[in-house]
Design brief:
The protein has helices at residues 12-24, 29-41, 45-58, 64-76, 80-99, 108-128, 132-139, 156-160, 167-171, 186-191, 193-201, 215-218, 235-239, 250-258, 299-302, 310-313, 329-335, 351-359, 370-376, 418-429, and strands at residues 177-181, 205-209, 228-230, 243-246, 284-289, 318-322, 341-342, 363-366, 382-386, 406-410. The chain has 3 domains: 12-139, Alpha Horseshoe (Serine Threonine Protein Phosphatase 5, Tetratricopeptide repeat), CATH 1.25.40; 148-258, FAD/NAD(P)-binding domain (3-Layer(bba) Sandwich); 284-429, 3-Layer(aba) Sandwich (Rossmann fold), CATH 3.40.50.2000. The chain has a 6-stranded parallel β-sheet with strand order 7-6-5-8-9-10, sandwiched between helices. It is of the alpha/beta class. It starts with 11 loop residues before the first helix and ends with a helix. The chain is globular.
Length: 431
């Protein structure tokens, strides 16, 4: 460790560096800004507020790193107008810098990257404020990445020579042969299924590349029988395609054209190879998912400690089926206390198994993870537990934009799950 702040990582070493620097100079702005980043990641909003306010007071020049973190703080605590004002100022400031240099200048690409990042953050704000079109347009500034196992390295250059489908080309139904490139996680790839059939109905010849763990499930949808679903793009696919489109651009294109979302697909008919015991059929069977992938940047915001569910587990007229594959030793201790909990972590080998189980339950309770999209895309009655500032998609849930079968229960205060669980308790008692 060399005592240098690194804004790309968060660990104990960086915390120590911050406090060492502050002990030397209590007005070290970068150290206070770094601490803000750390406390935000750890969901300690009180300390994050103190740190960013201290940085702001210490920074006479109001440097852009500090202002960018201040904007991000406002975004994460739901102060959207304050965040938007700061991001708009930063974008304007860097556009002026951009206009004063040329592409050959060393900072040119850095300025472009910062502007794109801030516009992407603005997209979240616009969605939260109810401005769908602005949100969708700004979301196009996201970092579009293709997973490494979707293509061989030798074919990356060839794929790069295929142009992206523009909205005008989409609207005019030009360049019919397209590859839809999956982005992001399992849930996002499931969410996109609803757009593939309408694409086909518009006359496009569609190949959809997605994660191999989803292939069998996706091929079970009768509505997708005319869509080629693949786990890897080859050179022949590239040469036979007119255009590519990034999957997360499809909601924007369809909404911009129709001012509404596409219907979800007909549920697939699936059997399971696993011996899934539904216990007493006279009881009400409920599926639960309390955490997502810990590698997700939003995981600490969205995941919930299992002990908060214990008052539900004490209801003996209900059976609770775990929908988690990875359960810690401490979590198993909690689960073992209740005879009405069925642990399926060893039974759910793939998404088809999970879907089969979910379809046979009366209710799904889940945090914001892939199971939310699987339930939503399959018309399964679901309750979603959301943090105070959720993924911006769920700020559009008031008009059932994404999934009509999901009831979204959102925190009314930062880091406080009491109200969502109170409402959840009422929902369960009414089953």
């Amino acid at each position: 460790m060399d005592g240098t702040l690194d804004f790309s990582i968060i660990n104990e070493g960086q915390i120590k560096i911050c406090f060492d620097l502050i002990n030397i100079n209590p007005k070290n702005v970068d150290a206070w800004v770094k601490l803000t980043q750390i406390y935000l990641r750890n969901q300690d909003f009180k300390m994050a507020n103190m740190c960013i306010n201290t940085a702001f007071e210490c920074d006479e020049e109001k440097n852009t790193r500090m202002l960018s973190m201040k904007a991000y703080y406002h975004l994460k605590v739901g102060e959207f107008n304050e965040a938007r004002d700061l991001y708009l100022y930063l974008i304007s400031f860097f556009k002026n810098l951009l206009n004063s240099c040329t592409p050959r200048d060393s900072n040119y690409s850095l300025y472009i990257k910062k502007i794109r990042t801030w516009k992407f953050n603005l997209s979240e704000i616009e969605f939260h404020l109810g401005n769908k079109i602005n949100g969708f347009e700004l979301y196009e500034y996201r970092d579009k990445k293709l997973q490494e196992d979707f293509i061989d390295k030798a074919d990356i250059t060839a794929l790069g020579n295929v142009r992206e489908l523009t909205f005008d080309e989409f609207k005019n139904k030009e360049f019919k042969k397209i590859i839809v490139l999956s982005e992001q996680g399992y849930g996002d790839q499931i969410m996109i299924l609803r757009y593939l059939k309408p694409l086909k109905e518009l006359g496009f010849v569609v190949k959809y590349v997605c994660n191999k763990n989803l292939i069998d499930l996706f091929r079970s949808y009768s509505d997708l029988s005319n869509i080629e679903i693949i786990e890897k793009i080859n050179y022949k696919d590239i040469k036979n395609s007119d255009r590519i489109i990034w999957s997360m651009s499809l909601p924007f294109f369809f909404y911009k054209q129709n001012k509404k979302n596409c219907k979800i697909l007909k549920s697939p008919t699936i059997s399971s190879n696993q011996n899934i015991n539904l216990k007493n059929q006279k009881s009400i069977n409920i599926g639960i998912c309390w955490k997502g992938n810990p590698k997700n940047i939003r995981d600490k915001e969205r995941s919930i400690e299992l002990k908060l569910f214990e008052h539900l587990f004490s209801k003996k007229t209900f059976n609770f089926f775990t929908l988690q594959k990875d359960i810690s030793t401490e979590e198993r201790k909690v689960l073992s206390k209740y005879s009405n909990i069925i642990d399926n972590s060893n039974n759910l080998k793939n998404f088809k198994d999970t879907y089969f189980l979910m379809k046979n339950l009366q209710l799904i309770i889940t945090v914001d993870t892939s199971l939310l999209h699987l339930a939503g895309s399959s018309d399964i009655k679901t309750v979603a537990l959301l943090p105070y500032v959720p993924d911006p998609r769920w700020s559009m849930s008031e008009d059932d934009f994404w999934y009509k079968n999901i009831k979204f229960l959102r925190q009314s205060k930062l880091n406080d799950w009491s109200q969502p669980f109170e409402r959840l308790n009422k929902i369960i008692n009414e089953l």
